[in-house]
TrEMBL record:
Organism: Desulfurispirillum indicum (strain ATCC BAA-1389 / DSM 22839 / S5)
Keywords: ATP-binding, Cell membrane, Membrane, Nucleotide-binding, Transmembrane, Transmembrane helix, Transport
Location(s) in or outside the cell: Cell membrane
Gene Ontology biological-process entries: cysteine transport
GO MF entries: ABC-type transporter activity; ATP binding; ATP hydrolysis activity; ATPase-coupled lipid transmembrane transporter activity
Pfam families per UniProt: ABC_membrane, ABC_tran
Record's keyword annotation contains Transport: yes
Source organism phylogeny: Bacteria, Pseudomonadati, Chrysiogenota, Chrysiogenia, Chrysiogenales
Transmembrane segments: 20-46, 58-76, 142-162, 168-188, 242-265
Protein name, as recorded: ABC transporter, CydDC cysteine exporter (CydDC-E) family, permease/ATP-binding protein CydD
Main location: membrane
Length: 588
């Protein structure tokens, strides 16, 4: 069932390469005609030279035509290869675009649940594995019918026996090709899974190398990687064994069929047989013509067998690609009406309900109103539903039940790309891309001047450390920001929010895991960032929460308390109990 679905998907996306494939088949058909012409010319030249005693000068024009035919065949082969490359490139471009767009629709929540190396493997290795299918196998599947049929039309008028030998033996080659290569797709799928696991494991090991060294586990991980590599090697060799076995069987069948033709012609020349030529006598020209066409008749079928492993590889790769494309979108749809007019943003959660699967309820009848220009801190234990609420507001998850209004507009009806232009997001673990500090700050805006970058860096307290770096704001941040400390990376993310100058700022644990100095600098930056903006902040730290105009306490997907620090302390409820229990700094 899965294999059939993969083949159907490959056939469906083949529409993007149909033009190039058809032109390749047309060229291949012309090549088939030239094969017949070449065999006829060779047979004629040899017959005339040795049987009729024609001089070399008289045969010179035929040699010229023969050279021309060979040159045209070479040109056609080059054209077919070029068209195959174009077909493959077009399909791979479309598939990569579909994957990227669908991963975008799946959203960051889906991406965070997957191993980065597995997604990278799907976008790179699995898509590249489609190359042979569209560049060689698909055109050859058609040519395996067109060229033998063309040669058969030329052979049958000369000898019905040779034509019958071709006709009877030809189906045996694809039959055994399919029988032997039947399990190749499954082997390729297992091989891709092994490659994906090995890639993910290797990336995890590189990222955690320091931890492994400290706990003396680096040798163990090296052995695990070696084991994964060996499994991948064995899988690759299993696939190659099937491919070589298939090629060997096809070569044997082809050799037997050609030998049968040669034996028939030899017996005819020795006058042991006298049928199959429609009552005519077998001449050297006729015999050479038939014998030269015999290997050419089977050549397209042999090439199809050679490229059959490309089909198996593509079917195996399609499994992983389809697994991503079939995944249901979790993020809110991108299409919708634009958000506006833009000013200070008011947010209203109305009876929002969200669950993961059929059991775990993340939000239950959530009702919360945030006034325009208000700074709201959302606190609560881990698993209380804070992150789910944030993901719904950012459009990273689709709303299941209830309504979220932003300035009176239904968030579900908005164009998510347009909505996110008005939102600045500072995550707990900010993503810094390879480049300079200035490049990462400017990421928050499409049109960013150097002066705006410097001002944002000043307000985000980035200049406090960048001035000491060689290159200043042009200093590199390294891979995933590894040249900066956690606090410095958090300040770059804060400066990015200043640079974007969005009316709504959403922060996720902005001071978590920071030392006292970095926490103080971030909190000072937050005060400046909140001025004139609506700000929603998730935090476990009560010192940070006290900066907000309003504190919202969540528990098990519900809002249990809301108010200022003083008001919540006066309620003598959950918030006050947390503070008085001695956990005034960090919530559980």
């Amino acid at each position: 069932m899965q294999k059939t679905a993969s083949v159907q998907w490959l056939d469906a996306i083949a529409c993007h390469s149909r033009r190039w494939v058809l032109w390749g088949v047309v060229l291949g058909g012309l090549g088939g005609v030239l094969i017949i012409l070449q065999a006829g010319l060779l047979a004629h030249v040899i017959h005339e030279a040795f049987m009729e005693g024609i001089s070399r000068a008289a045969l010179l024009p035929f040699f010229g035509f023969l050279v021309l035919v060979i040159a045209l065949r070479a040109l056609i082969a080059w054209g077919r290869e070029l068209l195959g490359q174009r077909a493959s490139t077009q399909v791979r471009r479309v598939v990569r675009q579909q994957l990227l767009e669908h991963i975008g629709r799946l959203g960051p929540v889906y991406a965070s649940e997957q191993r980065a190396a597995s997604l990278s493997s799907a976008l790179l290795e699995r898509v590249e594995a489609l190359h042979g299918y569209f560049s060689h196998y698909l055109p050859q599947k058609m040519l395996a019918i067109v060229i033998p049929a063309t040669i058969g039309l030329a052979v049958f008028p000369v000898s019905w026996v040779v034509g019958t030998i071709f006709l009877v033996t030809a189906p045996l080659i694809p039959f055994f090709m399919v029988m032997i290569g039947r399990g190749a797709a499954t082997l390729n799928q297992k091989n891709f899974q092994a490659l994906s696991r090995m890639s993910a494991h290797f990336l995890d090991t590189l990222q955690g190398l320091a931890t492994l060294k400290i706990f003396f586990r680096s040798r163990d991980e090296a052995q695990r990687i070696a084991k994964s590599s060996e499994e991948y090697r064995q899988g690759t060799m299993a696939v190659l064994r099937v491919a070589f076995l298939s090629s060997a069987v096809l070569e044997f069948l082809t050799a037997v069929a050609i030998a049968m033709t040669a034996v028939y012609l030899g017996m005819h020349f020795l006058h042991y047989l006298d049928f199959g030529l429609y009552g005519r006598e077998l001449t050297l020209k006729m015999g050479l013509f038939l014998l030269l066409l015999a290997p050419e008749f089977y050549q397209p079928l042999r090439e199809l067998g050679t490229h059959y492993h490309a089909r198996a590889e593509a079917v195996g790769a399609a499994e992983g690609i389809q697994a991503i494309l079939r995944a249901p979108a979790q993020a809110a749809p991108r299409d919708g009406e634009p958000f506006g007019p833009v000013g200070n943003i008011a947010i209203d959660f109305r009876s929002v309900h969200h669950c993961f699967g059929t059991e775990r309820v993340a939000l239950e009848n959530l009702c919360l109103s945030i006034e325009a220009g208000q700074w709201v801190a959302v606190v609560g234990a881990s698993g209380a539903g804070k992150t789910t609420m944030l993901n719904l507001l950012l459009g990273f998850l689709s709303l299941q039940q209830g309504q979220i209004l932003v300035n009176g507009q239904d968030l579900g009806s908005l164009n998510m790309e347009h909505w996110r232009r008005h939102v600045a997001w500072v995550p707990q673990s900010p993503t810094l891309f390879y480049g300079s500090i200035a490049d990462n700050i400017a990421l928050g805006s499409e049109a960013m001047t150097r002066s705006r970058v410097i001002e944002a860096a000043r307000r985000g307290r980035v200049l406090d450390f960048s001035d000491a770096l060689r290159g200043g704001l042009d200093a590199p941040v390294g891979e995933q920001g590894n040249l900066l400390s956690g606090g410095q990376a958090r300040r770059v993310a804060l400066a990015r929010a200043f640079a974007k100058d969005a009316p709504l700022v959403v922060l996720d644990e902005p001071t978590a895991g920071l030392d006292g100095e970095n926490e103080r600098l971030i909190m000072e930056g937050l005060k400046g960032l909140a001025a004139g903006r609506t700000m929603m902040m998730l935090t476990h730290r009560l010192d940070t929460a006290r900066l907000a105009d309003r504190i919202v306490v969540m528990d098990r997907g519900r809002i249990v308390e809301a108010g200022s620090h003083a008001e919540l302390m006066a309620l003598e409820g959950t918030y006050a109990a947390l503070v008085r229990s001695g956990r005034a700094e960090v919530l559980p």
